[in-house]
Amino acid sequence: MNRRRWLYASQWLLLVALLVLAAGLSCTVRTSGIEWVPLRDLPPEARETIDLIRAGGPFRYDKDGAVFFNREQLLPRRPRGYYTEYTVRTPGARDRGARRIVAGGDPRSAGEYYYTGDHYRSFRRIRE
User: Fold this and answer.
1) Which backbone phi and psi does 61 adopt, to 5 degrees?
2) Residue of 98, 96, 90 whose CA lies nearest to 45
3) 98 vs 90: CA distance, rounded Å
4) Is 119 part of the annotated catalytic residue set?
5) Residues in CB range of 39: below 8 A, 6 or more apart
6) Catalytic residue among 45, 72, 85, 128
7) What does the alpha-carbon distance between residue 34 and residue 77 come to, in Å, rounded to a whole number?
């Protein structure tokens, strides 16, 4: 094989290797290592909150529907304003408590919902 063909073939191999690597990295970013949880395994108040989100309210707390900024960077990176947060009522709590659902995209129809029971320290993606 002459030098020119060898150079051409090695450039193609490098390009293919980079594409495979990039595809692998994008899969990692998309899944983010967040585990899934069936909706039926969450507290009944979380299911009530999902129903309220889909209905567009009414919500009990003023902060419900506010932009969630993902400062913890535990959810997949999205443009500012993509995520909104909603309170999951905690029976017996005098304040909003620690439980939330964070919705991605259009909260009424997107179906991308995350649950945190520990005030944003961890998330699980809700599977309906």
Assistant:
1) -115, 145
2) 90
3) 8
4) yes
5) 46, 47, 50, 126, 127, 128
6) 85
7) 13
* Candidates 35, 48, 72, 119; catalytic one: 119
Q: How far apart are CA 102 and CA 96, in angstroms?
A: 14
Contact by Cβ (8 Å): 127, 35: no
Cα 99 from Cα 10, distance rounded (Å): 53
> What are the structure tokens assigned to 59, written together?
């919500």
Give me 122's structure tokens.
Answer: 């961890």
Distance CA 100, CA 70 (A): 13
The pLDDT tens digits of the residues spanning 43-54 come to 999 999 999 999
Which amino acid, residue 12? W
Q: Decide if pLDDT at 112 tops 70.
A: yes
For residue 80, pLDDT beyond 70: yes
